[in-house]
Amino acid sequence: MPTSQDMTTEFDPGLLDALQHQVAVFARRAEQTRLGGTGQLRNSMDRAAYLLLNRLDQEGPMGVKALAAGMGIDSSTVTRQVAPLVDTGLVKRTSHPEDGRAVVLQLSPRGLARLEEVRSSRRQLMVEVTEGWTPDERESFCTLLTRFNTALSARQSAHTGGPATESAATAPPAPPAPPGTASTTESPADGTSESTQTS
Known about the structure:
By secondary structure, the chain is mainly α. It is built from seven helices and two strands.
């Protein structure tokens, strides 16, 4: 069986070095800017809240365990991240339609409106960052980034033995973008815990 070293030598080392360097730079830039949109809504919602709201919008009402499994994080993390969203009225707790004893989380009308505002701001950021790109270039970049995120998710799952984090392939569809622009959503490969800011 070939070792990881054997597999690495099959590729151009210089290209691999350039790739890992650009990924590291992207991670730093993304952390610095938080890719949080433009204008007054810039960084008005953190990554954890954005991903949770996106998931509930896409999948509909679900319990904490199902939400945690879909995002590849533990239930205690979801409980901690959801609490401020419930307190601010963006998410509501309701009874399971088939089991009245069970409680499910549901995106509230206020939460959906808030999510759409943030999505719009973040789409505008993508328009500005990719200004000068052709539609084909945006599509190719999105396709490759989705593939990269999915591979990272699968690798994490294999190494931890836990569920794979939600990949970009499961991101909710965004509203149609104007001609010549790209509609995007936050990359969901990161299900890390962080404080929730919804103001």
